[in-house]
Amino acid sequence: TPTPKFLKSLPKIELHMHIEGSLEPELMFSLAQRNGIDLPYDSVDALRQAYDFSNLQSFLDLYYQGANVLQTEQDFVDLAMAYLGRCQQQNVRHVEIFFDPQTHTERGIAFETVINGLHRGFMQGKKQYGISFELILCFLRHLSEDSALNTLEQAQPFRDKITGVGLDSSELGHPPEKFERAFAAARAQGYRLVAHAGEEGPADYIWQALQLLQVERIDHGVACTEDPALVQYLVEQRIPLTICPNSNVRLRVFDTMADHNLRELLDAGLKVTLNSDDPAYFGGYMLENYQNVQNALSLTQAQWMQLTANAIDASFASDGRKAALY
Ligand code: ADE
Ligand code: ZN
User: I need a surface site. Which of 12, 137, 214, 227 has the fewest CB within 10 A?
Assistant: First the structure.
């Protein structure tokens, strides 16, 4: 049966990680000091104690507040490098990173500050650690479609640095259909497409993401088991689901890890991958997700190998890079 050493040694591929969600309290405090920003917490410990969430929105409120300390290009470089240091320790070999430009442009930080900092940080990590990466721009779904279209225009000069477009933030009340034109525009520009769907929202939002937005991966998607026809479609079309176990428990999508539907998803033959979502807020990175899943759900070695193969298949890496990851 899979040992802790086995889990640690597995080559890992992360496909669902928001870079703003990798901002650890220690780095948040040091960037706040560097940039002369006041945080509404007395200490790192007090901040960590606030990370007790009741749903997605209660997390997002703190996540957007935390992102205010990110001001300069160097801040984004440091954020990327801190995350990659964790990846290196956990044998993560390839990462596909979400970033939320509107979180920054809405408070006066230039789009180019964000993308240039992140790109420089991940290029440095690639050189230093051999960890390959792709960047995925996410639209904030609580904002308007016009704001998303405007963000896509701002991304145009940096098209070669951005692999894909996604959709995140408050799901309920902001169905995929709201972004049909923005995703059509992104598709016309050749971006790979993904969307968060079926995290807190219903199975119908997953259908909308597939049929209206034409995404090729679903982020979360745990609600699919409410709809057997949808599960069958996802299996037949081999649509990957980027599952985030610790996140789902911390945001109360499931009461405990033992209640998570991961095994049901695997048994249905879905192309499941495991990911950390917002590791600084949800109690850990890839390995901590693997460990918590294993402790609660006791997967077999074959299932762990399947999850690894699924992530390589589902990635947006080049065919050459995928072959090297196997
Ligand atoms: N932004 C960061 N993490 C998110 C999540 N789990 N769901 C939706 N939006 C997010
Ligand atoms: Zn997410």
Answer: 214
Q: Is residue 137 part of a domain?
A: yes
CA distances from 83 to 24, 183, 283, 321 (A): 9, 29, 14, 21
Q: Tell me: the pLDDT tens digits for 246-257?
A: 999 999 999 999
Residue with token string 């940080």: 121
Interface confidence: ipTM more than 0.90: yes
Q: Which of 199, 200, 236, 264 is catalytic?
A: 199
* Domain coverage including residue 160: 4-315
Strand, helix or coil for residue 192: strand
CA 301 to ligand 2 center in whole angstroms: 26
- Full-model pTM: 0.98
CB atoms within 10 A of CB 127: 9
Of ligand 1's listed atoms, the one at least distance from the Cα of 100 is 1
- Four-CA torsion 244, 246, 179, 217, nearest 10 degrees: 0
Give me 151's structure tokens. 């963000």
What total number of domains does the chain contain?
Answer: 1
Distance 250 CA to ligand 2 centre (A): 13
199 as an active site residue: the answer is yes
- Residue nearest atom 6 in ligand 1 by C-alpha distance: 277
pLDDT of res. 285 = 98
Q: State the average pLDDT over residues 97-119.
A: 98
Residue nearest atom 9 in ligand 1 by C-alpha distance: 169
Tell me the CATH number at 183.
Answer: 3.20.20.140
DSSP structural state of residue 278: S
In a domain, 115, yes or no: yes
